[in-house]
Amino acid sequence: MDLTLSQILKLIQDSGVPGLLLLIVVSGAQKWWVFGWLYRDLQRDRDEWKRLALHGTKIVEEMTSIGEEAVRVARERG
To answer: How confident is the model at residue 45 (pLDDT cuts 50, 70, 90)?
Structure first.
């Protein structure tokens, strides 16, 4: 069911507040827009994964530095 903007506005105008509330629920269920609480949850989840990824990258960089130092010392010792 594809509605144009003018059809949606006409439907809201004809049905009043109950129609508007129904449109909000239906449009959220159809994923035409995202409910605020869901958006905030997804942002928190995204930020947590980003923090973990950056932390993991830092650990790898430190381990690489340690490995490079070990190779350098081993080469110096012959």
So the answer is: very high
